[in-house]
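Sorry, explain these tokens?

___
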Amino acid sequence: MNKERTKVLDRVVLAGVGPGFDKQENDPDVQEMKGLIEAAGLELVAVMLQSRQKPDRATYIGKGKVEELRHLAEELEVAGVVFNVDLSPLQIRNLEEALEVDIIDRTMLILQIFKDRARSHEGKLQVELADLQYQLPRLTGRGKSMSRLGGGKLRGAGEQQLELDRRYLRKRIQDIKNQLAKVEKTRELHSYRRQRQGFKTASLVGYTNAGKSSLFNAICLRAHSSGQEQVEADQRLFQTLDTTTRNVKLPSGRELLLTDTVGFINRLPPHLIAAFRSTLKETVDADLLLHVVDRSDPLYLDKMAVVEEVLADINAAGKPALVVFNKIDLLDQPGSHHEMTNMVAVSAKTGQGIGELLHCIDSLLQDIS
């Protein structure tokens, strides 16, 4: 890689593709992609939108747009183009050859964020598993972007090398699955011990950046948590990946095990859901789900629906749940919420409503045998 390219390694263009996309830079999908790009530590320098009903098999965006995108990438001296969709191996290879920059599709971008954020041994294993499972069927189309985002460990030419790469990936995937199976057994043992001790459990779930970790910290601070350290929380998407559990004391004096885990997102890559199965089992096994919602988000109802879909995917739908409308301090009219049962409004930032939330949790758990 030459020096000029190294200087602009983190500069990227976002290529947005979808029905009616040509003049809609404020489209929620585009805005979410911008957030993902920022979370990945990349610098977004331009957005090129295209309205397209049916993708081009070879390049997804068609020859005309490829040429337009090539000129834009050259002019801005970017190192990569990020697509808001998942591309086929053929499309990745053709786009890389035509544009001579790294091509990053939506799943690659999310995987990169997860790699950067995973801190625990289990979390790192889960992300590596998802990454390898995503790479395996794409080895024939692997180019610069797959090598870079995948760690650059699988290089070689010819069918013989390709088969060696496949064999390596399959072996590593099985090894990680075996390690995660041991972790899951240990987790199940801890869960069994908690049940025998009579502990009730609650799990925070919600769309990424809904303020789950901030709320987790606020609850622990208010409820005299036994845990010393707070979890990291800021405005970046997928700030929290690793599961954290704290023992908190409710108003009645009963003790509760409260868990914070990874946030959800629209079109969450299935490989990630599968890889994080043991982590998400904390949600499946919880006595109570606290569905945290950013009430200041105009699309909060749509994002609530996405969370419900993911909960259904992991067999956690239908569990006792309490909707927690967060960030009410950002509302022009704090008292105006969507009417629903089992709902409480709070602000993790100011502490407003945290006391009422703890009483609601206490009351709901008394009704759960």
Observations:
- Residues 128 and 248 are 33 Å apart (CA to CA).
- The chain has two domains: 9-116, 199-366.
- Residues 1-8, 141-157 have pLDDT under 50 and may be disordered.
- The two ends are 62 Å apart (CA to CA).
